[in-house]
């Protein structure tokens, strides 16, 4: 293990970089109208600054195993921090949407490299007996910015300018780069490393970008009524199928899909993606709805998400103890029951305030605090220790990209359902007449507010039923890790962690 005097620099620098990557993704969630104004575009197009960050965040994850083996952990960390900092600088300077999307892609690539790299460094430079605690610290470093980022971004956007999100991040990236360079040991380069799967990466990149265009622009062009969207969707399908075929035959693939043959891996990953994508989708949609319908500014729209962090952080710190008391499968089930309770208890009106939104968000935070540790350990259960980095890279890629699907689909559903409700209200007014003394613009505003809120409530009910189904699947079909351990099987981090917290 590395000299213990340099470990604080390693942990602080790596955690700071990981948190900054998450912060730059989350800080824009509640200020899309402000970004739209700064870039002279619409809020729908401003949403691309979030979705393009996420898609490149997931792509960055696939680069980490090969680049670390080829260049060493320290050089990869420095490169990732430098790429993200460069993107941050361009984001702070540009007034053009397309240049902003390019800079957000750079930020996403850098942040994506840091996700599996930071997890690997944390586990490699800590005792085995502390792996459970280190995993909790790693997940908090990644998640806490998602809770506080929207409020920070909202405050900066309303008091200064949304570009200060990027200006203030720049010196922190520099500090993280310096601490990481000081704490991460040099070496680890392997010039005989197998060649990078450039063809596979090209197919994956092109496929994900075609899928992203379909998700982002489908509503604008009328979905399947548009040949443009049909062609981009077909291109995405063909390219991603070619990528899967390529990975199954490549001697050194980017992603290892054969792990999906294990029940705990694919089912645990499916549940993790569902919980994470729903959270990310609502974290983007609720602040936007509050600003456009309730009249909140960017700061108060971001404050809506703070109760999630108030509950999630304390619960996540107790996961070492809770998994020993209840077991991983029961915790995963309870997580989705809490999600269902949060989405089911959220019933809003155009007159709702923070008090009505606080308790559903608090319940959501309780569930989110239980999401990562039990499902991550279930996903990795039964996998030999030497294969865990490959399995974790594949699962992290799929989980991160699932957030993009959640953000896009929840946004599209809210828009479409709101439009349907608005049309129904207008037809009712035309049929029965307007007996009030309201002017036409005032009445139109009330109809839009009611329709948008009804759409949010319907989507909350749908999310509740999805989480209830997920809870049933978790309890009925996940296999507790202890049940699949066989005598003489290769030891893994999951087995060790299970033994450490086993109740007396």
UniProtKB/TrEMBL annotation:
<feature type="transmembrane region" description="Helical">
    <location>
        <begin position="164"/>
        <end position="184"/>
    </location>
</feature>
<keyword id="KW-0813">Transport</keyword>
<keyword id="KW-0472">Membrane</keyword>
<feature type="transmembrane region" description="Helical">
    <location>
        <begin position="361"/>
        <end position="385"/>
    </location>
</feature>
<dbReference type="InterPro" id="IPR020846">
    <property type="entry name" value="MFS_dom"/>
</dbReference>
<feature type="transmembrane region" description="Helical">
    <location>
        <begin position="331"/>
        <end position="349"/>
    </location>
</feature>
<dbReference type="InterPro" id="IPR036259">
    <property type="entry name" value="MFS_trans_sf"/>
</dbReference>
<keyword id="KW-1133">Transmembrane helix</keyword>
<feature type="transmembrane region" description="Helical">
    <location>
        <begin position="397"/>
        <end position="415"/>
    </location>
</feature>
<feature type="transmembrane region" description="Helical">
    <location>
        <begin position="227"/>
        <end position="245"/>
    </location>
</feature>
<feature type="transmembrane region" description="Helical">
    <location>
        <begin position="76"/>
        <end position="99"/>
    </location>
</feature>
<feature type="transmembrane region" description="Helical">
    <location>
        <begin position="299"/>
        <end position="319"/>
    </location>
</feature>
<feature type="transmembrane region" description="Helical">
    <location>
        <begin position="265"/>
        <end position="284"/>
    </location>
</feature>
<feature type="transmembrane region" description="Helical">
    <location>
        <begin position="45"/>
        <end position="64"/>
    </location>
</feature>
<dbReference type="Pfam" id="PF07690">
    <property type="entry name" value="MFS_1"/>
</dbReference>
<protein>
    <submittedName>
        <fullName>MFS transporter</fullName>
    </submittedName>
</protein>
<keyword id="KW-0812">Transmembrane</keyword>
<dbReference type="GO" id="GO:0022857">
    <property type="term" value="F:transmembrane transporter activity"/>
</dbReference>
<dbReference type="GO" id="GO:0016020">
    <property type="term" value="C:membrane"/>
</dbReference>
<dbReference type="InterPro" id="IPR011701">
    <property type="entry name" value="MFS"/>
</dbReference>
<feature type="transmembrane region" description="Helical">
    <location>
        <begin position="462"/>
        <end position="479"/>
    </location>
</feature>
<feature type="transmembrane region" description="Helical">
    <location>
        <begin position="135"/>
        <end position="158"/>
    </location>
</feature>
<feature type="domain" description="Major facilitator superfamily (MFS) profile">
    <location>
        <begin position="10"/>
        <end position="482"/>
    </location>
</feature>
């Amino acid at each position: 293990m590395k000299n213990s005097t340099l470990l604080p620099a390693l942990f602080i620098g790596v955690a700071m970089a990981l948190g900054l990557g998450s912060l730059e993704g989350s800080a824009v969630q509640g200020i899309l109208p402000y970004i739209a104004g700064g870039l002279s575009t619409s809020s729908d197009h401003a949403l691309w600054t979030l979705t393009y960050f996420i898609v490149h965040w997931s792509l960055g994850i696939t680069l980490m195993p090969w680049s670390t083996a080829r260049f060493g952990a320290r050089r990869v960390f420095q490169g990732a921090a430098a790429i993200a900092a460069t993107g941050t600088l361009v984001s702070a300077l540009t007034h053009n949407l397309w240049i902003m999307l390019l800079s957000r892609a750079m930020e996403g690539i850098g942040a994506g490299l840091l996700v599996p790299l930071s997890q690997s460094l944390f586990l490699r430079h800590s005792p085995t007996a502390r792996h459970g605690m280190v995993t909790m610290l790693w997940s908090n470093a990644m998640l806490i910015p998602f809770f506080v980022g929207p409020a920070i971004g909202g405050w900066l956007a309303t008091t200064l300018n949304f570009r200060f999100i990027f200006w203030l991040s720049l010196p922190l990236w520099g500090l993280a780069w310096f601490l990481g360079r000081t704490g991460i040991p040099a070496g680890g380069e392997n010039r005989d490393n197998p060649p990078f799967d450039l063809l596979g990466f090209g197919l994956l990149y092109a496929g994900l970008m075609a899928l992203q265009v379909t998700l982002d622009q489908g509503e604008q062009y009328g979905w399947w009524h548009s040949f443009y969207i049909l062609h981009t969707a077909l291109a995405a399908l063909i390219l991603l199928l070619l990528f899967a075929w390529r990975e199954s035959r490549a001697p050194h693939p980017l992603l290892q899909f054969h792990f999906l043959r294990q029940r705990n891996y694919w089912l645990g990953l499916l549940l993790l993606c569902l919980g994470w994508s729903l959270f990310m989708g609502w974290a983007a949609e609720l602040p936007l709805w509050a600003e456009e319908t309730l009249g909140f500014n960017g700061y108060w729209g971001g404050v809506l998400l703070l109760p999630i962090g108030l509950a999630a952080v304390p619960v996540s710190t107790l996961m070492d103890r809770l998994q020993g008391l209840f077991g991983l499968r029961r915790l995963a089930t309870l997580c989705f029951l809490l999600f269902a309770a949060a989405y089911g208890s959220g019933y809003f009106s155009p007159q709702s305030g923070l008090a009505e939104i606080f308790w559903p968000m608090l319940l959501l935070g309780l569930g989110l605090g239980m999401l990562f540790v039990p499902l991550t350990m279930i996903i990795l259960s039964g996998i030999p220790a030497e294969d865990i980095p490959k399995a974790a890279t594949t699962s992290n890629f799929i989980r991160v990209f699932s957030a993009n699907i959640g953000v896009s689909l929840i946004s599209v559903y809210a828009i479409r359902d709101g439009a349907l409700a608005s049309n129904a209200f207008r037809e009712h007014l035309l049929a029965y007449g307007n007996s009030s003394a309201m002017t036409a613009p005032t009445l139109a505003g009330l109809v839009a507010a009611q329709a948008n809120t009804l759409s949010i409530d319907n989507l909350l009910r749908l999310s509740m039923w999805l989480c209830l189904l997920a809870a049933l699947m978790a309890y009925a079909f996940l296999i507790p890790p202890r049940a699949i351990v066989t005598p003489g099987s290769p030891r893994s981090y999951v087995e060790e962690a299970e033994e450490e917290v086993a109740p007396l």
